[in-house]
Hints:
Strand order of the largest sheet: 1-3-2
Number of strands: 3
Amino acid sequence: MATHGSGNPIRSVRREYLKNVFESTRKVVALSALLLKSHDAPKDWLARGMETVLGGFFGLFNRVFRRGAEGYGAGVGGILGRKSGALLVYGALLLATVGLFRLVPPGFVPIQDKQYLVSFAQLPQGATLDRTEKVIRQMSEIALKDPAVEGAVAFPGLSINGFINSPSAGIVFETLKPFDQRG
């Protein structure tokens, strides 16, 4: 490393760093002047080519967008001019929302009983197949204790993610009794 005669390498590093910062700043300013030209500046060949090829599409897009923005602004202005009517509509929408929440079944699971359940276990990465098999067997035993469950088929080592072999995963399919035999 050059010390520039001062004998102190830290001063030399600082000097080089400051020179690099100054040079980078100068280049950024020069590039900004090139990139941030005014709209009236003459266009280069690339800008002229892009305008020829894509100008129609972007002109149409800008006209449609401008009309949409003006329509939205007029709509908001109209609503703000009729505040009491807007509040009445808002209140009616709130009441409709509350009413629909009371009509729809409250459960997250839809009312679709296919007469089987699927359970899966994902043990930590690196778990052995013996450990997974023990967990899957316990899951089957717990399911079979329920009087609504008719049978269980277990697949230790089968991952629910793409149904691939994985020693740390397992799936249990539980078949349920017919509707009239469940409690």
